[in-house]
Amino acid sequence: MTLEELLDHAASECIDKRESYLVVFTVGINAYVCPNEGAIHPGKALFEGTYRACQIWVERQGIAQALRCVLARIGETPVNPTPLSSSEFLDLIIRSTN
């Protein structure tokens, strides 16, 4: 698996995870996050806060899922013959997306 394929797979996992949640406005700028399933109800809230805080919560779930995907499949990717530090690996990812 190439680094590009790994990143595409991680991005896909991130999107799927983010889309599994729904942010619902309540009063003013407040909202809650619930599973993106048929029935939406505050009793099913996974997180409550401002709308922005709810968006951040959802984004963090997506980022975490993408990182889990990278960690699980990095061994299939010939990134470098020598081990990379975390910052070197993140820099490699950033450069590959430009």
| Number of helical regions | 3
Strand order of the largest sheet: 1-2-3
How large is the radius of gyration? 17 Å
State the share of residues found in helices, binned by percent: 40-55%
Given as residue ranges, the uncertain stretches (5+ residues, pLDDT < 50) are: none
Number of domains: 1
Order of helices and strands: HEEEHH
Mean pLDDT: 89
Q: How many strand units?
A: 3
Give the overall silhouette: elongated
Largest sheet: 3 strands, antiparallel
Strand content: 15-25%
Distance between the termini: 20 Å
Structural class comes to: alpha+beta
Blueprint of the fold:
Layout: H1 3-18, E1 21-25, E2 30-35, E3 47-50, H2 51-73, H3 86-96
Antiparallel strand pairs: 1-2, 2-3
Structure, explained:
With 98 residues, the chain is α+β, with helices and mostly antiparallel strands. The chain contains 3 helices and 3 strands; from the N terminus they run αβββαα. It has one domain (3-96). Helices cover 51% and strands 15% of the residues. Strands 1-2-3 form a 3-stranded antiparallel β-sheet, covered by helices on one side. The chain is elongated and about 55 Å long. The protein starts with a helix and ends with a helix. The model has no long low-confidence stretch (mean pLDDT 89).
Question: What would the keywords be for this entry?
Answer:
alpha+beta, 15% strand, 3 helices
Put the structure in a nutshell.
With 98 residues, the protein is of the alpha+beta class. The chain has helices at residues 3-18, 51-73, 86-96, and strands spanning 21-25, 30-35, 47-50.
